[in-house]
Design a protein that fits this description.
Elements lengths: L4 H27 L1 E2 L6 E2 L4 H24 L9 H17 L15 H25 L5
Antiparallel strand pairs: 1-2
């Protein structure tokens, strides 16, 4: 059945986010955890629980596909550049929000040394993000 394009867009966004969450959980379960710079995810699940969750995630993905079919939602191809630009933009905002001037709401000032050090580090991170963006801007193959 067809729904209004606004409703279709909202459903597509929801199903897309759910599908991405399913993918992340499947990857996490398959890789049995995840490394990270400041947070690591440790696998404490029993094999039976992991296997059961993987089956349930597959069933949930099938249900998402059924909803998409029921409401005649179309599959859309995204250029990888769009996805990378969105992720890079998110990184930019995250790093900018770590600047000492933006972290005043915690009721504590940074020491002058910590302020300068953090600003330098944020500047380096943002330079790396800009370099990544310039790679995404390279001509198509």
């Amino acid at each position: 059945m067809k729904v209004h394009e606004y409703h279709a867009r909202s459903l597509e966004a929801t199903l897309s986010r759910a599908d991405e969450a399913i993918y992340r959980m499947e990857r996490l379960l398959s890789e049995r955890g995840q490394g990270g710079v400041v947070r690591k995810i440790e696998d404490t699940l029993a094999a039976e629980a992991r296997d059961g969750l993987l089956i349930q995630l597959g069933t949930l993905r099938d249900s998402l596909a059924a909803v998409a079919t029921t409401f005649s939602l179309e599959s859309h191809l995204l250029d990888i550049r769009q996805v990378l630009f969105a992720e890079i933009s998110t990184l930019w905002v995250l790093f900018e929000n770590c600047r000492p001037a933006r972290m005043k709401g915690y009721g504590q000032e940074f020491t002058p040394e910590a302020r300068v050090t953090l600003e330098r580090n944020i500047d380096k991170l943002l330079a790396q993000v800009l370099a990544m963006r310039s790679q995404v801007d390279l001509p198509l193959r």
